[in-house]
Amino acid sequence: MSMTHPLTTTTFELPGYRVVKSFGVVRGIMVRSRSVIGNFGASIQAVFGGNISLYTSLCERAREDTFNQMLTHAGELGANAVIGVRYDATEIAPGITEVLCYGTAVFVEKSN
What we know:
The chain is an alpha+beta fold. The chain has a single domain (17-110), classed as Translation Initiation Factor IF3, CATH 3.30.110. The chain has helices at residues 36-48, 53-77; strands at residues 17-33, 81-93, 96-110. The longest helix has 25 residues, at 53-77. The protein starts with 16 loop residues before the first strand and ends with a strand.
């Protein structure tokens, strides 16, 4: 089950909160490769068509891991929220992909 943080958003403001301090860009980064066994299983799924669940779960784990790394980075700076959250992925070599999650770390307070 994927978890999220209540004070993260892809927008640049959090309704009901005001930004008190900005700490700049924070990120989580990971380079993942597909295993030979995973590729074999996925190729069998591809024969039948539809969702290739082995790759879907690999991608979801990579996104979740980088998201959590980003939150850790933000927490180390003293932030309690991250705004403007984005993901990016780049294939570095065949079967090897970099996954990046980034945003702006901020400290927010409830607005009146």
